[in-house]
UniProtKB/TrEMBL annotation:
The keyword Transmembrane applies. The keyword Transmembrane applies. The lineage of its organism: Bacteria, Bacillati, Actinomycetota, Actinomycetes, Micrococcales. This is GDSL family lipase. The chain crosses the membrane at residues 20-39.
């Protein structure tokens, strides 16, 4: 029929156009897939998880690490025990053994015997880091003063020092004064005996006196932490409780012989964790 050649020629042109158009579309799709692969590389066999509107992209969030508390910092510290320890235990009436049937039944003497190190024990009742003794704090027997007196004797050179106390420091109305005195005492010991390893045993007492020591305990603990010395927190650990105090109390202020033995036992448990 007339016009068939033109019609067929038009039909061939359309077919070719569709063919080339399809090829072009496939090329575009292939190029897009390759681009996705390049921007989202994965290992062999690793699946690609599609991100949809119902699957929001997670954004990383910073997790704050809480700063260690003063108590935690002091308790986490340890000491480097010398190869040949020479020990000085300095404190108040507890270290002197007051309340025990015999002074050598006091906690400090029990600890010294258990450890087996050459040891000097210096306990003076009514004294503390900041409180010098006497009803008016007028005896000038603060721990730092006594350390200086001990250091004047060159025949005894300790390389381990246990500072016990804080009960009498509860008479000080300023926690900052107690904290400062504690830190200065520790630093003084390090100056007097370079390399000495210092451990602080905080205040403790049978109930009800123990209930009055929280402020002093916190201040002594803060002073130990400021000086970087391990702190054994007998108060927070509850060495003396309302339940056990009747069996450990001597006079309402001091432990009896059993109370001193209890203090020594608890101290040695803590000591073992400090020297590991």
């Amino acid at each position: 029929m007339p016009g068939d050649e033109k019609r067929w020629g038009l039909n061939v042109t359309k077919q070719e156009w569709f063919k080339y158009g399809a090829l072009f579309l496939l090329a575009v799709v292939a190029f897009g897939v390759a681009g996705i692969a390049l921007t989202n590389p994965r290992g062999p066999g690793e699946a690609v998880s599609p991100v949809t509107a119902s699957s929001p992209v997670a954004t990383p969030t910073a997790t704050a690490t809480p700063a260690p508390t003063v108590a935690a910092t002091a308790q986490q510290l340890k000491i480097q025990l010398p190869a040949q320890p020479v020990l000085l235990i300095l404190g108040d009436s507890y270290t002197a053994g007051d309340g025990a049937d015999q002074p050598d039944q006091g906690w400090a003497y029990v600890v010294a015997n258990a450890l087996g190190y050459p040891t000097n024990i210096d306990g003076v009742g009514g004294t503390g880091f900041a409180w010098g003794g006497g009803e008016q704090d007028n005896l000038a027997q603060e721990y730092e003063v006594r350390l200086q007196e001990i250091a004047a004797n060159p025949t005894f050179v300790p390389n381990v020092l246990i500072l016990q106390g804080g009960q009498n420091d509860a008479l000080i109305t300023s926690p900052d004064e107690i904290q400062t005195a504690t830190a200065q005492t520790i630093e003084a010991a390090r100056t007097l005996w370079p390399g000495v390893q210092v451990v602080v045993l905080g205040p403790s007492a049978p109930h009800p006196l123990a209930e009055e020591l929280q402020g002093a305990n916190s201040a002594v603990r803060a002073g130990a932490a400021a000086a970087g010395a391990p702190f054994i927190d007998a108060y927070e650990a509850g060495w003396f409780t309302g339940a056990n105090s009747p069996g450990f109390d001597f006079d309402g202020a001091h432990p009896n012989t059993a109370g001193h033995a209890h203090l020594a036992e608890k101290f040695l448990e803590s000591w073992a964790t400090l020297i590991q």
